[in-house]
Amino acid sequence: MILLDSDVMIDILREYPPAVAWLESLGDETLGLPGYVAMELIQGCANRGEQARVEKALEPYVIEWPTPETCNQALGVFAQFHLSHKLGLLDALIGQMAIALNTPLHTFNEKHYVLIPGLRIIQPYIKA
Questions:
Q1: Residue 120 CA to chain centroid, in angstroms?
Q2: Which of 2, 9, 52, 108 gives the lowest tally of CB atoms within 10 Å of its CB?
Q3: How confident is the prediction for the chain on average, in pLDDT?
């Protein structure tokens, strides 16, 4: 599975050419989104029309949710790093989900995730 963060999904939704080309190159790969990413994308909508467009665009993606164990692990990482490194709550949950799923997180927000132990990050295409 290829797990995408919100910044990559925003590029895809905005039809940013490098993101679209990368997405098209994946073939039949399973694409996953943390449920929190899907919620962030819906939260960014300004009206019902935008929300309907985003919800439709999310249909092909597998929405992943953390287990209670993953949430507990994220809590530990969050408690360890939120004061010292300003680790965000959702970033802790999303990063720990990628670890639990044993898959890299595809994102350009490396600074948000770099301190999460065991998390692998991939920048999926080149940004201009």
A1: 12
A2: 52
A3: 97
Instruction: Using DSSP bridges, classify how beta strands 2-4 and 31-34 pair: parallel, antiparallel or unpaired.
Output: parallel
Q: Which residue has tokens 């963060």?
A: 5
Structure tokens at 13: 């939704």
**Torsion angle in degrees (nearest 10) through CA of 98, 35, 59, 12:** -60
Q: Which of 69, 2, 6, 3 is nearest to 37 (CA)?
A: 6
The CATH number that domain 2-122 falls under is 3.40.50.1010
- Distances in whole angstroms, Cα of residue 12 to Cα of each of 9, 75, 88, 125: 5, 30, 23, 11
Model pTM score: 0.94
